[in-house]
Amino acid sequence: MSEDRLKYVVDMANQIALNLLHGKEQQQCVTEISHHINRFWAPSMRSQLAEAANNDNYQLEEMVILALKQIKND
Amino acid sequence: MISYYDPKTEPAANQPADLSKDLGTPPSKSTVQVSVQIDGVDIIVPEGTSVLRAAAIADINIPKLCASDNLEAFGSCRLCAVEIEGMRGMPASCTTPVKEGMKVQTQNTKIAKLRRNVMELYISDHPLDCLTCPANGDCELQDMAGAVGLREVRYGFEGKNHLDGATDSSNPYFSFDDSKCISCSRCVRACEEVQGTFALTVEGRGFDSRISTGQDNNFLESDCVSCGACVQACPTATLTEKSVIDNGQPDHSIITTCAYCGVGCSFRADMQGDKVLRMVPDKNGKANQGHSCVKGRFAFGYATHKDRITSPMIRDNIEQDWREVSWEEALAFAAKRLTDIQEEHGRNSIGAITSSRCTNEETYLVQKLVRAVFQNNNVDTCARVCHSPTGYGLKATLNESAGTQTFESVMKADVVLIIGANPTDAHPVFGSLLKRRLRQGAKLVVADPRSIDLIDSPHTKAQHHLKLRPGTNVALINALAHVIIDEGLEDADFISSRCDDASFQQWYKHIQDQRHSPENTMEITGVEATELRAAARLYASANNGAIYYGLGVTEHSQGSSSVMAIANLAMVTGNIGREGVGVNPLRGQNNVQGSCDMGSFPHELPGYRHVSDESTRNLFEQEWQVSLDCEPGLRIPNMFEAAIHGDFKGLYCQGEDIAQSDPNTQHVQKALSSMKCIIVQDIFLNETAKYAHVFLPGSSFMEKNGTFTNAERRISRVRKLMPALAGKEDWQVTIALAKVLGYEMNYEHPSEIMDEIARLTPTFSGVSYENLDKLGSIQWPCNEKSPLGTPIMHTEDFVGEKGKFAITEYVATPEKANKHFPLLLTTGRILSQYNVGAQTRRTANQVWHDEDVLEIHPNDAEDRGINDGDWVGIASRAGTTALRALISQRVQPGVVYTTFHHPLSGANVVTTDNSDWATNCPEYKVTAVQATKVDEPSQWQAEYAQFSQRQAKYLKNKNGGQIAKT
Ligand code: SF4
Ligand code: SF4
Ligand code: SF4
Ligand code: FES
Asked: CA of B18: how far to CAs of B6, B7, B266, B282, B560, in Å?
């Protein structure tokens, strides 16, 4: 998978997290991130995110890492 | 006694009001009824109604010349004189209000004589060329001469007169023939009261009084914005459309809807055979109430422009001549390519883009094609790049992805807050209505980095201009909310009864934090804390506070947060659920609302129901007889990304010009060049079509039936005025493509498509062409609960739920000015052009704006040695383009501004692929750039000009002798 491409989904996921993480408990924030990604992202993009999570070259926000378990990847 | 129904004040329960008849003066808003007797007929009308109007309501038609029911009475012509029992002389009925018990006589010998004398004076100073006059048959002066029985003119034409008055033909669409002017001032009043521009005055007094466009100006050089209100108001041939002068009077008319902006004005298309002679705004149109702007009124000639392509074309690759082929061959070619791609690259390797310029029925069919035939959810709409954050943000807070009001509602607003919108340019008819309300005394707050016209225009001034830095909307709106909470200005009753308590408590805790105070956000927004506090107080303490916003809110990396912050602001002040308030997204294109309603987003089926919802899917599966994908598809930017990386290979693009309108042009060009099959369906060979393999000729709004849904959720009919130039209407093309792909869609008429939409979509269940014809237009939801539609949303609840406050933290855009790119570029649009300009560039509107320019503050220009008109290179991290400079105080130092109406301007070569966190709506409004004086176009511009020349040659060679047209 091209690195550019993984960076694209990583940046998007991190941006979502940065916008959702304020004024809430961690669990609510994690749920909102995963809900958002499940609801709006095509499965191909979710798999790219999963792939990026296993690649040390990409830095996912902590909340995204926590949300990964709840993000569908099939 | 008969109580007469005044159509403007008392719409009958199940009937639309017919406002076509000119009742002479505007309706009275009084709720007190008075009874009068006119020519022996007893009439009850609201107190304050003029005698002229009361009589007209009872079909007693008093002659009139200077009066019209969209203008305040002026009383200058004296033709409407009547006798009133107990009153001396013969008062003008247009300026005399009815009184209880009044007895009026409109006809007797004395009155008739006076009226004949008045007419005689007018005619003695008027050319007697009725038979050759362009207004022959459509002239109130001529009608009134007939009505009063004028048989002779005793005064002759020898004396002083105006018969040698000059003609001003400077405006491309209408001319002003001074020799025919009767100085009734209807044009002046229309310009003031209806349009709000004040471009005309009456110069001189008495006999010498003449209509003037200001000092030594002609119409073109004056402040006139060519809205046409004066032309419509003129009772003579003085102000007449050039199309009527050239071609004569129309023989029939058809009511239809403007295909430009989201106001959705209703028009009467005046026709000669199947030729449109002129477009006249429809008085019965509820969105526009008889008003128009230059685009809808005059700029319709593109529909028959010589650049129209009316035959299908194909080619194997984009550096080949086009081949003009039959519909059958083009569709078979397209179908084979799409099928081959799916076989080789998988089901998800193709998709489609619908357009907000197309009808509801057309966009519905495109998403149906993708879901039922392509078997995926890769469908998106150009609303992605404008108002997708509105869909997201309003659904998350108010539980419905739509604006809450009618346009008319603004007439009850006491304070209007405009954020990131420029109504007088982008939504001009609404802009005029708003200006009327402001002249009545409503207060205005504008939040915009640039000084828009509304801030300081004749007789309207904004109380506060919050001149924020681009990209800081969320910080600004949060600060407004903070002040409201901090100063106890919230509407506690509304919050406790209508809003979700848990979300409010969480939001309250968040927003009261001092980091949101105006004093602390001043550093971010650049807006003075005292000014912001005053603006917040003004909005929060209004009886009715209304918020209007546009793309200056949505097209940011925090577009969705801004929309939610706006909804928070309306809820915390209780400004939702009645007239005069609300959250009002001003939609860019004519059918942005509709294309979203129709399920054009990749995660939603029609009616904003998620594709994962099994019961909704079942409904569509049964109707369409296919199984549907339960996972979201790709959005437009995701499609581009996938194309560049080799797994998105085929695109069906209907009515949308992504190559020009989407950000980071070079990235888009790379994506388009990577695909194996691009099918463009459009009326012109647009920029995207230069990358296409199949061109399917589209039909303009004049060539088809359908519906558009405007920013008020108002569904209006688009009616076919002429046969489709290419032989097929757009909806028929999609059906034909589906058929060659092996799927039958059986519709004989777009009304049947709407019937299917209504069957499957609860908010549309009461919508049908029959009902639209009966009611004129319908605002959804329209169903059993609201059979006549819903003008104001959320009057009792938020679609069965409580309103939810959303936490909206300001997160700075990564796009920051730095030493390489020290200026922030923001983009917008101009009155005379429309979006990518494909339509308006092919009209005489070019006279007002034939190139995009870069507005730059004098300080920034001086620092760079840039003078007005110099070529300026604009470089961002995405690319470089060059535009001519316009030195302007409208922009603040550090900010530059341009429009994107001309392809070679390359405004989007510079914009980046930053986008809204929730919806991927591009951040068009903030790009860090450097501006430098240059003397030649950018490399991109030079290369693109060459590419366009080659594409023009491929088009010219389209017949090539290879495949004959069948
Ligand atoms: S066209 Fe419109 S703006 Fe121009 S003078 Fe007439 S009313 Fe005024
Ligand atoms: S131009 Fe027409 S509307 Fe204006 S004063 Fe003359 S006759 Fe009346
Ligand atoms: S305001 Fe919009 S809808 Fe109305 S005429 Fe102008 S462009 Fe058309
Ligand atoms: S119509 Fe009443 S004075 Fe002209």
From this structure: 10, 7, 14, 11, 40
Nearest to A19 among B602, B642, B917 (CB): B917
Closest C-alpha to B624, from B845, B858, B375, B441: B375
Q: What CA–CA distance (Å, rounded) separates B210 from B184?
A: 10
Chain-chain contact of A19 with B634 (C-beta, under 8 angstroms):
no
Across the interface, whether the CB atoms of B506 and A44 are under 8 A apart is answered no
Q: State how far the Cα of B147 lies from the Cα of B136, in Å rounded to an integer.
A: 16
Residue in chain B nearest A8 by alpha carbon: B641
CB contact under 8 Å between B348 and A16, yes or no, is no
Total tally of structural domains belonging to chain A: 1
Provide the b/e sequence for B471-491 (b: ≥16 CB within 10 Å). bbbbbbbbbbbbbbbbeeebb
Task: Please answer whether residues B445 and B454 qualify as being in contact, where contact means their C-beta atoms are separated by less than 8 angstroms.
Answer: no
Helix or strand run (H / E) with residue B174 = strand B174-177
B205: buried, middle or exposed (CB in 10 Å: 19+, 13-18, 0-12)? exposed
Q: Whose CA is nearest to atom 6 of ligand 3?
A: B293
Enter the DSSP assignment of B470: T
Q: How far apart are CA B532 and CA B509, in angstroms?
A: 21
Q: Specify the pTM.
A: 0.94
Q: Which amino acid is at B810?
A: Y
Nearest CA to ligand 4 atom 3: B75
Task: Take atom 7 of ligand 1 and give the residue whose Cα is closest.
Answer: B191
Q: State in Å: Cα B119 to ligand 2 middle.
A: 15
- How far is residue B963's CA from residue B966's CA, in Å, rounded to a whole number? 9
Range of the domain at A24: 1-73
Question: For the segment B808-857, what is each residue's pLDDT rounded down to a tens digit?
Answer: 999 999 999 999 999 999 988 889 888 888 889 999 999 999 899 999 99
Q: What is the ipTM of this complex?
A: 0.95
**In A, which residues are within 8 Å of B378 by CB distance?**
42
Convert the pLDDT of each residue in B394-403 to its tens digit.
999 999 988 9
